[in-house]
Amino acid sequence: MDLLSNLGLGLSVAFSFQNLLYAFFGCMVGTLIGVLPGIGPVATIAMLLPITFHLPPTAALIMLAGIYYGAAYGGSTTSILVNLPGESSSVVTCLDGYQMARNGRAGAALSISALGSFFAGTVGTVIIVIFAEPLTQMAQKFGPADYCSLMALGLVAAVVLASGSVLKAIAMVFFGLLFGLVGTDVNTGAQRFTFDIPELSDGIDFAPVAMGLFGIAEIVANLERQVARSGAIKVSSLWPTREETRRAWPAVLRGTAIGAILGVLPGGGPTLGAFSAYTLEKKISRTPHIFGKGAVEGVAAPESANNAASQTSFIPMLTLGIPSNAVMALMVGAMIIQGIQPGPEVMTKRPDLFWGMIASMWIGNLMLVIINLPMIGMWVKLLTVPYRFLAPAILLFCCIGAYSLQNSTFHVVQVALFGVLGYVFSRLGCEGAPFLLGLVLGPQMEEYFRRAMLLSRGDPMVFIQRPISLGLLIATAILLVLMALPSIKKAREEAFQEEEG
Amino acid sequence: MNRFLSKDFLSGLLFIGFGLAALYFGRHLAMGTAVRMGPGFVPHMLAFIMIGLGLIISIVAVVTNNGEMAEVPKWKPITLVTIGIFVFAALFERTGMFPALVALILIASAGGEEFKLTEVLGNIVVLTILCILVFKIGLSMNISIINGVW
Questions:
Q1: Count of alpha carbons within 13 angstroms of residue A333, beta-carbon side
Q2: A180: domain range?
């Protein structure tokens, strides 16, 4: 059995002392930033990217992955106990989780969300194992035109996730693509938009951009509005009652299924999964009136969904090399830093890395249950740290992190400039995520585009003559049309309003 | 309210502005042909698309006039944070990490609503120790804490 030997290899890699240590470190950091509002996984991973230079590739990726799914666990804790979502993926958990806590069922809500997340994480990992190989084989048939169309689909799908105007989000994608072109043109060696600055000839590093857009802009936003924090609710018994368990487990199953499917889609991810799972539960429930008043299903389903989606969103990145969200874009960057070109070859050339990372995800999920449940008191204490202590620390780590990318203060200046740009974006209601995805995919997409056109002797029809490319472009067009339809538009606006409210 | 101050109209302008800037600064880049594209082909294409989208966004915003208005920003936090990072960048290699760190934290903390000197000093001490432990000792990065001293 190939699958079993692969898994065995993965487990042996993941169970090495060093990798266990980094998985644990990643999970701890992930839980920490998940609990703390005001800093998300994107900014954190960007901050820690320079550190991964010093680590072996497997350990680096295991650690970064741990941060990503750890944040999904940690975010739910604050949603339930303080009604403050630590992450956007736990926004819906607030609705019923906080109500459960107010009804004295905080412990039950926490353990249902942790155990549901663990179950979903396990299923998500199994799905990756099963689908990784066939998908990778499919990816090897992809030509340049197909890759170009696939990226177009990914970028358009990313727009679905952005709240606010679709047109603005699409413009942000092109904005990002344009910034991605800065540097030396690979084919001709011409300098593009470098303004004779030698540091720019290698292109704009995405790590300072992510720190600026997601770190600095977030700090400034938090400094502007001083958030008053309500006290956390005390946690009593962690055990759910028999009745609660009976109602939770079907919701966990449904949430896992929805999250797993939405996570694989380009542009999908934990947030979309959680929202859809909550909506479904409310629709099919025989008692929809209790939602928003502490329904167990309203905690179990979205929490399982966001974790399942966190796991399965690794699939497009690992098999095709296409990031499906901003965090995956940074993971691609982390691989490139280590000299690994993400894509279908990773599995054949570096099976230890590929399977080791997947196996470590399951171990990480197990660790997270332990980190989150018995240690809940510690995380709650952390919430009382005022933001004015955190902001300078985040700022400082961004600056030193940016410097150590290439030992150059130019990168620190870049952080500041992109911080200003990110501030302007947030003031004008423009999303940073599509911009970052465009920036990361820009150079690759141009390369594939030019190669496809070269192979077809300048005939743009190549994009609709190849069946794979045609299918992907049709999917892209359908997505665009769907978003323009009035009924979908309305539902989308409602979903995001719920998020903001 | 003035319909030219909506968030959508201003972001449309932003897109148009950057599109035009890309055209201007990329004007010397050769376009090439569709078969053999020059370095300027894709940048020009993207810039035109961005200008087009920017125009649509701002025209729709002015015509419908029901978008959210842009608020006047609070200048203090963003200005001080940005200055703090610039000062950090300027000091880091000349004087070492410690002076740069002190400057960054002092300036950035001044951007917040509450500024208590004792708290900020405590913050500086804790963060200095943390940075030395993590970056200098833990990761053994080649940075000096105070130039010429350590």
A1: 29
A2: 2-500
**Is there a single domain that holds both residue B82 and residue B133?**
yes
Domain boundary among B19, B38, B64: B64
Most confident of A157-161, A403-407, A457-461, B52-56: B52-56
Report the pLDDT averaged over residues A54-61. 88
Say what the ipTM of the complex is. 0.91
Partner-chain contact A190 B30, CB within 8 Å: yes
Q: Residue A17, class by beta-carbon neighbours within 10 Å (0-12 exposed, 13-18 middle, 19+ buried)?
A: exposed
To test the contact with chain A by mutation, choose from B33, B56, B85, B117 the residue with the greatest count of A C-beta atoms within 10 A, namely: B85
SS3 content of chain B, % helix, strand, coil (to 5): 70, 5, 30
B27 inside domain: yes
Question: Domain range for residue B12?
Answer: 3-64
- Total domains, chain B: 2
Kindly determine whether residue B22 and residue A193, on different chains, have CB atoms separated by under 8 Å.
yes
Mutation site for A-interface testing, chosen from B7, B44, B48, B88 by largest number of A Cβ within 10 Å: B88
* Half-sphere exposure (Cβ direction) of A432: Cα atoms closer than 13 Å: 26
Interface check B52 vs A, CB under 8 A: no
Measured between alpha carbons, how far is A330 from A52 in angstroms, rounded to an integer?
Answer: 12
Q: How many domains does chain A have?
A: 1
Q: Is pLDDT of A158 > 80? A: no
Contact A412 B49 (CB under 8 A): no
Looking at the fold, whether B16 and B57 belong to one and the same domain comes out as yes
The alpha carbon of residue B36 is apart from the nearest alpha carbon of chain A, in Å, by 6
Nearest Cα of chain B lies from the Cα of A271 at a distance, in angstroms, of 24
The pTM (predicted TM-score) of the whole model is: 0.83
Where is B7: in which H helix or E strand?
Answer: helix B7-25
- B127-146 residues touching A, CB cutoff 8 A: 127, 130-131, 135, 139, 141-143
Judge if B59 and B87 occupy the same domain.
no
If asked whether residues B60 and B81 sit together in one domain, one would say no
- At B148, is the secondary structure helix, strand, or coil? coil
Considering only alpha carbons, which residue of chain A is nearest residue B9?
A: A428
pLDDT value of position B104 = 92
- Domain for residue B148, yes or no? no
